[in-house]
Amino acid sequence: MVDSKKLLILVGSPRRAGNSATLAAAVQRGAEAAKIEVSLRFIDDSTSSFLRDCRQCRLPNGECAIEDNYRALFFDDFLPADGVVFCSPVYWYGLSAQTKVFFDRTFCYYSASYPDSAQVMAQMTRKRIGLVLASEETYPGASLGIVHQIQEYCRYTHSEFVGVVRGIGNSRSEVVQDPRDPSMAAEQLGREIFNRRYSDFRIDTERSGQVWPQDNG
């Protein structure tokens, strides 16, 4: 049981009862069952604009000039979180625009022109990251570009990419009919986000010859 960690679930779908939201709710159930402090947010409740040219747009005090609630989402929810699960539909074999704009807008605060960028960067790193995707296409390649993008984001921020769940569905909440039961997998991701085994070895990594702890009893 992990009760001292904070998990943020970010939903990048415009549909409040769609397949991405359905799977996000499953992640939340799993996290709550594990007594994890969890928050679920729809990204488009907090964003109204894409990233602009910070050199032209930034306010004199260094703050972003875009008048929406992105700053609160980023500073109050994302930065304090120990883990984040991104839930997105697959649009044109990529993330939704809502999800992508969340990543893009972080630049305003970690770029050197932001007064507290060093502190922001420190809080952006070393999180546990999960990915939940919903698509109508079953073929494996449909989501590979997204998985690679999140993988590279995690490597860039020294974060741990601990799991991917993909559900198939098109009409509203149809994902619950997916025979692979992605809802159960999403619940499991929520429960295990902070204790799931993670390994990403390099050639010079010091490690034992075993992956799983041995029961010596």
Question: What topology emerges from the helices and strands here?
Answer:
Blueprint: E1 6-11, H1 19-33, E2 37-42, H2 54-57, H3 70-78, E3 83-89, H4 97-105, H5 107-110, H6 117-124, E4 128-135, H7 144-156, E5 160-168, H8 182-192
Parallel strand pairs: 1-2, 1-3, 3-4, 4-5
Helix pairs in contact: 1-8
Task: Describe the model.
By secondary structure, the protein is of the alpha/beta class. It has a single domain (6-192), classed as Flavodoxin domain (Rossmann fold, 3-Layer(aba) Sandwich), CATH 3.40.50.360. It has eight helices and five strands; from the N terminus they run βαβααβαααβαβα. The protein has helices at 19-33, 54-57, 70-78, 97-105, 107-110, 117-124, 144-156, 182-192; strands at residues 6-11, 37-42, 83-89, 128-135, 160-168. It has a five-stranded parallel sheet with strand order 2-1-3-4-5, with helices on both faces. Helix 7 (144-156) links the parallel strand 4 and strand 5. Helix 1 packs across helix 8 (182-192). The two termini are 22 Å apart. The mean pLDDT is 91.
